[in-house]
Amino acid sequence: MDWQELTEKLKRMGVQVGIEKKPDRPLKKHRDISQLLTGHEIKTIYGSVFSSLHHYPNSYQHGNQKIVPSLQLTKIASWARSSQPDQLKLEDLVFLDTETTGLSSGTGTIAFMVGAARFIDNELVLEQFFLRNPAEETAMVTALAEFCDGMRGIVTYNGKSFDIPILNTRFILQGMRSPFIDLPHYDLLHLTRRIWRNRLAQCNLGNIEQQILCLQRDDSEIPGYLVPEFYNQYLRDGNAEPLVGVFYHNKVDVISLAALFAFFADLFANPKAWETKEIKDLTSVGRLIESLGDSELAEEIYIKGYHLDRPQEERLELLLRKARLHKRNGQYHLALPLWEEASQIGSLDALLEMAKYHEHINKNFKRAFEICNQAIELVSTSKSLKQTAALSSWQHRLNRLNARLSK
Fold first, then answer.
1. Rounded to 5, what percent of the chain is helix, strand, coil?
2. Which CATH architecture has domain 31-268?
3. Per-10-residue mean pLDDT, the chain, length 407
4. Are 110 and 100 in contact (CB under 8 A)?
5. What is the bridge-based pairing of β-strands 185-187 and 61-62?
6. What was the pLDDT predicted at 128?
7. Which residues pair with 56 in a beta bridge?
C-alpha cells in the first residue's frame, strides 16, 4: 500500500490528514467503540473496561499452520527453562500482544489495548481489553490479571524487551503485582531470528506471517507505526472508527502467536520431520538443537541438509557445523572431507582447521605448508577486510612450518 492509497483509506475512516480545516457546521457525534465492534463490559471492583471476545476452535488454521501443536510440549518448555517441562499443557499458556501509546517502554507509555488468548475447552479464547480512557487502566489490569490466573507461561513476540516490561510497569503504577513476573517466557522473536535471520531480510511478525505461515492480512490491517497516533486522536475527538483496524491488527498478532508456537513446539519435538528445502533453515535448526546439548540429533539434521540439492555457497555453514561436531568427537576422518569441500567454496575457516590438523595431529608438515600457501593466495585475492587482516597470521604459520621442514 503506497502513501496515497493509505491517505485515502485514512480519510474514509475519518482520520484527519494534513492541516485541519475549521468545520463550517458542528461536527457529527462519533459512534462509541461498542457500536462498532462486538464486545462487552467487564466489571471489576475498580470499575469497568471494554472487551472484545473471540473464539477459535482447535481445528482453526491460520495461513498454512494449525494453532494447536500435534506433538508434546516438553522440548520447547525445556528451551524456555520451565521448572517442570514434562508437565506443561497448552492450557497453561497465555498468548499476549499489546498496543501502546508509544514505542518506548518507559513509564509514560500506556498499553491501551492488550490482546490475550488461552486454550479453554477445545478452543482458543481471545480477549482484547481496551482503555476507552486512561482512567480505566486499574480496571483493565485487574481484568487482565483475572484472565491470566493460573497461567504457567507467557508467549509473545519481542515481549521480553517490550510488552512485558510495559505491563509490569503499569501493574506497579496501579499498586499491583504483575502476574508475569518470574514466569517462563516464550519470546518467539528469539526463535524466529535463530532460524530465519540467515535467509530472510526481516524477522518482524508481518514478514514471518507472509514467508512462513503464508498468511496475508486483509484490508482492515493498520500499519503498526500508526497505532499510537490513532489512539491519541481517538482520545482527542472520540472517533473510534479507525480503531476497528487496530483491533484487527492486534487480533491477528495474537492468533499468529498461537500458530507460530504450534510450529515451534512441533519443530522442537521432531525437527527431522520438518519438510523444508532450505538448507540454511536446517543448518539453523541444527545449531539450535546443538546448543541444547543434543549433538546426535543435530548431526542427523545436518545430514538431512547435506543431501539437499542446493548451490554450493548455501552449503558452507552446514559443512563447517557438521565438521565441527566430528572434530569435537575426535572423528577427524569424517571432518576432513567436509573441510576439503568447504575449502573449495573458499572457506578460510576450513583451511585453518585442515592446517592445524596436519601440523599438530597428523604431523604432515608438507601438507600443512601447502594448505597455508593456498590460504595466503586466497587472502591475497580477497576484497574482504576480515580475510585480509588474517594475512599476517597465515604468514606466521607458514614461516613456522617452513622452519620445521628445513630441519
1. 55, 15, 35
2. 2-Layer Sandwich (3.30)
3. 62 59 55 90 97 98 98 95 93 98 86 99 98 97 98 98 97 97 96 96 97 96 93 94 96 99 97 94 96 94 93 92 96 97 95 97 97 93 72 93 91
4. yes
5. unpaired
6. 99
7. 124
Contact of 44 with 143, CB cutoff 8 Å: yes
Residue whose C-alpha cell reads 555453514 in the numeric block: 317
- Residue count (the chain): 407
269 Cβ neighbours under 8 A, 6+ residues apart: 69, 71, 72, 73, 74, 75, 76
The pLDDT value recorded for residue 105 is: 75
- The DSSP secondary-structure symbol of 63 reads T
Residue tagged 513446539 (cell numbers): 265
Query: Among candidates 30, 403, 379, 12, which has minimal Cα distance to 239?
Result: 30
DSSP symbols for 333-371: HHHHHHHHHHHHTT-HHHHHHHHHIIIIIS--HHHHHHH
Task: For residue 291, give the amino acid letter.
Answer: S
Q: What are the residues whose beta carbons fall under 8 Å from the beta carbon of 333, sequence distance 6 or more?
A: none
Residues 6 or more apart in contact with residue 247 via CB below 8 angstroms: 37, 52, 113, 128, 130
Q: What cell does 201 get?
A: 531480510
Largest Cα separation within the chain, whole Å, is 101
Report which residue type is found at 317. E
Query: Dihedral sign, CA of 318, 319, 320, 321?
Result: positive
